[in-house]
Amino acid sequence: MYKVAVDSYQKKHHELTDCLVVDFLEYIDCHFLSDISLKKTADHFYLNYTYCSEIFKKVTGMGFSAYITKLRLCHACKLLDETSIQIAEISEKSGFHDYFYFSKQFKKELNVTPTEYRYMKNLTKRMGIYSEENYPTERQVSKMFQQVTLAQQNAQLLRLF
């Protein structure tokens, strides 16, 4: 009898945890451009900061800050690709309130500065030689998008079970 009760409790706890992560990701996806933190997000859901951190990393495979940074950089790449907005403004519109921190994170993740990224992207488009093979940074951007998408899909799959 005790085993059945424990199994039932663990199953319900697991279901609640899975739903929590999905709700967490949905909340983050709506607020990542604003001043968001794990503490604020945990407080929003009335949950313990440490617990949220552990569960988030377990399900998404990355820490909260890494996930937010990747989301913001993906957004910045989209703006760099599709607009001619000044890079400092793109940094702001992507949730980075410090241009130098934005540039540092961009370079760290993609191995080029935002200016170089835009220049290479525009040049390869104009020359008609755009492809992932000719544009190594594109593979890195794709990988970053895939990591974010995979984390979101993992959380969505948990909701189905």
Task: Describe, in plain words, how this protein is organized in 3D.
Helix 4 (about 65-80) crosses helix 8 (about 135-160). Helix content is about 80%, strand content about 0%. The radius of gyration is 19 Å and the shape is elongated. It has about 160 residues and is mainly α. The chain is built from 8 helices and no strands.
Shape: elongated
| Continuous helix count | 8
The sequence of SSEs as H and E is: HHHHHHHH
Structural class comes to mainly alpha
Number of strands: 0
Beta-strand level of the residues, as a percent range? under 5%
Q: Level of helix content?
A: over 70%
Query: What does the average pLDDT come to?
Result: 77
Largest sheet: none
Q: Cα distance, first to last residue?
A: 25 Å
What Rg do the Cα atoms give?
Answer: 19 Å
Which regions have little confidence, pLDDT < 50, spanning 5+ residues? Answer: 1-13
Q: What is the subunit organization of this protein?
A: single chain
